[in-house]
Amino acid sequence: MSELPPFPTDVKTAPLVSLSLARLEAGDAAEAAAFFKCSKELGFFYLEMAGSEIGEAMVTEADALNELQKQWMSLPNETKEEYGLKMHDFFAYRHYVLPDGQRKEDYNIRKDDVLGVVSERLPAHKLILDAQPLFESYVRHCRHVIELLLELLNTALKLPPGTLGNLHKASARSGDHVRFNHSPPAAWDEESVRKGEHTDYGSLTILFNWLGGLQIRPPDTTEWVWVRPVRGSCIVNLGDAMVTFTSGILRSNIHRVAPAPPPQDHLDRYSLVYFTRPEDDVVMRRLKGGIIDAVEDSVATPEMTAAEWWLKRGSGVLPGIFTAKGGFESAIPAQ
Ligand SMILES: O=C(O)CCC(=O)C(=O)O
Ligand SMILES: [Fe+2]
């Protein structure tokens, strides 16, 4: 990895706690309690990978996928568009034209293609197909982390054993995917920054970024604060599906990606995301059991399958839910 200019010290940063993957893997009760606390209060945390064999492998793989995505995003636009929305409504290359004509772009690659859950994979460029072993290893490692976190949440919520895990089996069809994100260096444009405000709509998200730019708006505030990238850690956040399943016990926090702050603002920004979603045929509604039974029915989500849900959210038809001031708001576009 080439050296990047540092994230600035004079900007306001978000109060994310840092949890250790190794300690969570080892069954450390205090770490598990800290995980449940931040899943309820902020819905975002750092996950430090050092000391975990799988975590350390993920850091190396994320760096390799970052290099790969730089190459992929450098392909001619016509080439990338061969894998665009005409190929698939969501698992595709997408772009947004900034006022200066440059493209903010992403590319969604589904877990079911990488792990062979579908018999026929969507077409992909040679760069992607040649990196199949890297993708497969990375997706399996992300799934290891996801399954551990779901199990810990299941225990903390006092749900019958395996409830959350059984809604998220890696071998079942789902909207899980890897995302490459690229933003070129660009002047701050309030409209495009605002357009990007969103909650994630899946269950859990694993994010690697190398430059600043990610901002969150903490609960009970109206101020956007920066999330500092931390080398050797990923950022994990909870999505709207966890809010629906738990009737609001868990939090899916609003966030957005702004141009990186100086002295990082002249660089192209890339990030690598793994989104987990419930299995396609899971019905999106509050779960029965554990401490969820004791809370009021506070999330008015129309019932539909997870497949309908992520397609609607992914195309912007269904607005997001997020807890800004303890209530539920819906006036944001989907991402
Ligand atoms: O690029 C980042 O840091 C965050 C990206 C993100 O929030 C998303 O793709 O949903
Ligand atoms: Fe997001």
Secondary structure blueprint with pairings:
Blueprint: E1 18-20, H1 21-25, H2 29-41, E2 44-48, H3 53-73, H4 77-81, E3 93-97, E4 103-110, H5 111-114, H6 126-130, H7 132-156, H8 163-166, E5 177-183, H9 190-195, E6 204-209, E7 214-216, E8 225-226, E9 233-238, H10 240-245, E10 255-257, E11 269-276, H11 306-314
Parallel strand pairs: 1-2
Antiparallel strand pairs: 2-9, 3-4, 4-5, 5-11, 6-9, 6-11, 7-8, 7-10
Helix pairs in contact: 3-7
Task: Characterise the protein shown here.
By secondary structure, the chain is α+β, with helices and mostly antiparallel strands. It has 11 helices and 11 strands. It has helices spanning 21-25, 29-41, 53-73, 77-81, 111-114, 126-130, 132-156, 163-166, 190-195, 240-245, 306-314; strands spanning 18-20, 44-48, 93-97, 103-110, 177-183, 204-209, 214-216, 225-226, 233-238, 255-257, 269-276. The strands form 2 sheets. It has an 8-stranded mixed sheet. Helix 3 crosses helix 7 (132-156). The radius of gyration is 19 Å and the shape is globular. The two termini are 29 Å apart. The site of 2-oxoglutaric acid has 11 residues, from strand 5, strand 6, strand 10 and strand 11. Pfam families: 2OG-FeII_Oxy (PF03171). Residues 174-278 form the Fe2OG dioxygenase domain. Keywords: Iron, Metal-binding, Oxidoreductase.
